[in-house]
Each structure stands twice: as C-alpha cells, then as structure tokens.
Specification:
CATH topology of chain A: Arp2/3 complex 21 kDa subunit ARPC3
Radius of gyration of chain A: 16 Å
Number of strands of chain A: 0
Radius of gyration of chain B: 24 Å
Structural class of chain A: mainly alpha
CATH class of chain A: Mainly Alpha
Largest sheet of chain A: none
Structural class of chain B: alpha+beta
Order of helices and strands of chain B: HHHHHEEEEEEEEEEEEH
Strand content of chain A: under 5%
Number of domains of chain B: 3
Oligomer: heterodimer
Shape of chain B: globular
Number of helices of chain A: 8
Shape of chain A: globular
Distance between the termini of chain B: 81 Å
Largest interface: A-B, 47 and 42 residues
CATH topology of the largest domain in chain B: Thrombin, subunit H
CATH architecture of chain A: Orthogonal Bundle
Helix content of chain B: 25-40%
Number of strands of chain B: 12
Strand content of chain B: 15-25%
Helix content of chain A: over 70%
Strand order of the largest sheet of chain B: 1-2-5-4-3-12
Chain lengths: 167, 282
C-alpha cells in the first residue's frame, strides 16, 4: 500500500487501517487446538504504533481500541479499554529505551504487557460474572509475544513505504 | 500551563476513571443496551468478510449443482412428503386438543413457531461459553429468549445486536436454569460450571433421591423456559458425609461443537404459564 507523498489523507489512514485490520483479526474464530492461544493482534499493532509514533498514537488510541473490542465481544464497557490504555501509556513513556531493545527483548516486554492486559480482562470477568480463572488464559500472551517479529516487519514495511515520520 | 498538565499519565488516569465508571454503569443496569444494539453493527463487517468463502461456495453450488446435491434434494423431497403426511395427523390432533382445551376454558396463546438461526461464531477463552447467532433485533430476538438444539436446551440470549445476538450457554458460570428430574419430579436449579460440557446441580441435601443417568428437564419455573425441555443427564453424584451438600455433575444434551442450526423459542414463558394455568384450573 504505497499512497505517495501528495496523498496526505491516504497516508493518514494507514494507522487507523492497520488498527482496524488488527481488530478484525482479533474477532475471527480459531480452530479447537488453537483456541487457547489466539494472539491479540490489537496489542501488537498498538505496541508498534506507540513505539514508532509515540506523539501521535498513545493512550487515547489504546483506550478507544479497547472500547471497540468491548463492543465487538459484548464484554462490559471499559474492560478491554483499561488494559489497552495501560499498554499505550507504558510504551509512550518508555519508547526511547524500548526502541534500543533487541527484537527478542521486545518480545519479552510484549509478553509482560499482554499478560497484564489479559489479567485485567479475566479479573473483571471473575469479579463481575464469576468466571473461574484458568492458567490457560495466558497462553494467548505467549502467542502474541511470539508473533511480534512478524507484526513488526509487516508494520515497519507499511510505515516506511508511506513515509510516515518517526515522531 | 494547562497544556503541560495533559501528559499521557494525566490522560490515562482520566480515561481509567471513565472506564471504571462505564463498567460500573454497564454492570449495574441496562442503560447501555440500546447503545450496544446499535454499535454492535460494526461486528457485521468482519463477519461478512469471514463468511465470504462459504458464501461464494454456496453461490457456486447454486449454479453448478453436482450429483451429491441432486441426491440430497431427492432425499429431502421424500422426507418432506413423509413429514407432510405426519403433519396432517398432527393437525387433526391439534384441532382435537384445542377443542378439549376450550372445554377446559383454558386461555392458550396461539402456537408461535420458533425462529431458526445459525451459529456464526464461537467465543474464545475467557469468553468460551458464548456463541453468536446470525439473527438479531431485526428478526425479533430479545434478551432472555431460550435457545434450543434438536438434542436439548443450548442456553439463553444474553445480548442482542441489529442482525446478530449472543447466546450464553448452559455451561457459563453466570447461567442458571430451573430443572426438574424426569424420574421423580424433583425441582432444583442447575448452574453452569465454567467447564465445557458440564453443569452442576448445587445445594441438594445428601439424602436426596438422585442417581447417575437421571435426566434433567426444564421445570418451567421462572417463566423463561417452557416446561419439559431436555437439559442434561446426570453424570456423577458424589455423596461425601463431610460435606453439607451433594456434588452433582451433569452433561448437557446440546453439544455446541456439533451444532450449527438452533431454534429460538418465541414467548416460551408466556405459552408455558398459560398452559400450566389452563391445566391446573379444573
């Protein structure tokens, strides 16, 4: 998707478009064996854009994405929003350090952030609706972390092609 | 000075409180139900996208019917004929039944056929005890509507979108259903366990008469479900003298893994109470 220099509106749409794709990928069904490890594409996309353009994509984006997830998955309004806003906050504060990290180290950071995010959703679900907590819920964090290199390369390609700034 | 205060942290804390407020309001009352019904229309886009391959296949099969389809068509035609013949008998029986009910001066709401729907999405953990159907408010689906499969009760509609709805399965820990043991008429409540394919029957005294393989039916109490629908079969009854209550596990008849088509009952409660009153009056 190369929209050129003159197409300002097209270029601005790159970030929302990728985030929307991530939202769609989040709600597709998975086969039985992969059910416990469905990766959280929204976290990956949000992490990338907060890392690459911390002055443009931040807490507000994360919160809105979380709210959209709540709408799409019929969870309580705000349940996903807190986790996603927290991820954005931490990345926006730590981006100079995170950018210097090796991609493997970034995977570990994502593992931690995704675990906290899942923890918030599961805990709210536990308190509000009596969901029994299983360790398997956190497999999703692992698969999310393992997919970071793929998401990183993909999004960086889009990012560079459309010559978005690095601020 | 004001701009300097709006750091990401400030914004996060603000949004955190907004989110907490939203959650509290959403949990405590149904203020957001219309908002949800409207906004959940965004779900239609990914679902349409995902159904595209299946839809294309269906379309192709319409134009290039193969031998398998022909055979299936022929089989269905015979089946339909057979059913029509049986339906004539049913019509006669229903007419007779209505005459008898009229004699008993029962007020019975007219038989409303259920609404057929398809499961289009299965919930992923931690929301694994939910499925999404392809019918919504447009087709008259409402929250609390009972959902059946040919094998038994599947669950209850818990949220409604414009063209889809979410069903909470019997196995969901937040779901409870009034049941009756088929063998001896014992009335109790079965609750979701949070484990796939298992529901629990809590708070039964140790000396109660309940065995393995007992069948649980809906009791019609509470008015959400019609009486007499198959719910589950008792799998395990653990009687431990140290515990206050029996520990009873049952397996629902409806298996969500092998089900595509489901039936949404219309006014299940209204019909049930009306007939029960009618039957009890004389």
């Amino acid at each position: 998707m190369n929209l050129g220099d003159d197409n300002m509106y097209g270029r601005r749409l790159v970030i929302p478009a990728t985030l929307l794709c991530a939202l769609f990928l989040n709600v597709i069904p998975y086969p039985e064996w992969a059910k416990w490890a469905h990766p959280d594409w929204v976290t990956l996309a949000l992490f990338y854009w907060c890392l690459a353009l911390p002055h443009r994509v931040g807490v507000g984006y994360g919160w809105s994405l979380g709210l959209l997830l709540d709408v799409m998955q019929f969870t309580l309004f705000g349940q996903h929003a807190i986790g996603k806003a927290l991820i954005a906050l931490l990345v926006v504060y730590a981006y100079p350090r995170l950018r210097r990290y090796h991609i493997g180290q970034q995977c570990v950071v994502i593992l931690l952030l995704a675990s906290v995010d899942i923890g918030i959703v599961v805990w709210v679900q536990h308190v509000a609706l009596g969901l029994q907590i299983h360790a398997q819920f956190w497999w999703a964090a692992l698969s999310t972390a393992l997919l970071w290199p793929v998401a990183y390369l993909l999004l960086r390609k889009l990012h560079r092609r459309n010559r978005l700034s690095w601020r | 000075m004001f701009a300097a205060r709006r750091t990401p942290l400030y914004r996060f804390l603000l949004l955190l409180f907004v989110a907490l407020g939203l959650m509290a309001i959403d949990h405590r009352n149904d203020l957001f139900v219309p908002v949800r019904t409207m906004s959940s229309a965004i779900n239609l886009a990914p679902q349409a996208l995902l159904n595209l391959p299946a839809k294309t296949q269906q379309l192709l099969q319409q134009y290039y019917p193969d031998a398998r389809l022909q055979r299936k068509y022929a089989a269905l035609l015979t089946k339909q004929l057979e059913l029509e013949v049986r339906l004539q008998r049913y019509d006669a029986l229903q007419a007779e039944n209505e005459r008898l009910l009229a004699l008993l001066s029962a007020t019975r709401t007219p038989d409303q056929p259920g609404l057929l729907a398809e499961i289009i999405e299965f919930g992923l953990p931690p929301l694994a005890h939910r499925v999404t159907l392809n019918r919504g408010a447009e087709a008259g689906v409402y929250v609390g509507q009972p959902v059946l499969t040919p094998d038994g009760v599947l669950g209850q509609v818990s949220a409604v979108g414009v063209r889809h709805s979410v069903v909470t399965l019997l196995t969901d820990p937040s779901h409870a259903i009034p049941v009756q043991v088929q063998r001896n008429g014992l009335r109790t409540i079965a609750q979701g366990s949070g484990v796939a394919g298992q529901i629990n029957v809590p708070f039964l005294p140790l000396q109660v008469d309940l065995h393995n393989a007992d069948i649980l039916l809906t009791s019609g109490m509470g008015g959400s479900f019609v009486a007499g629908l198959k719910v589950a079969q008792v799998q395990e009854v653990i009687s431990d003298a140290n515990e206050e209550f029996l520990s009873v596990h049952a397996t629902p008849f409806a298996n969500v893994k092998f089900t595509k088509q489901v039936l949404l009952l219309r006014d299940g409660g209204a019909t049930a109470t009306a007939t029960e009153e009618g039957a009890a009056r004389p």
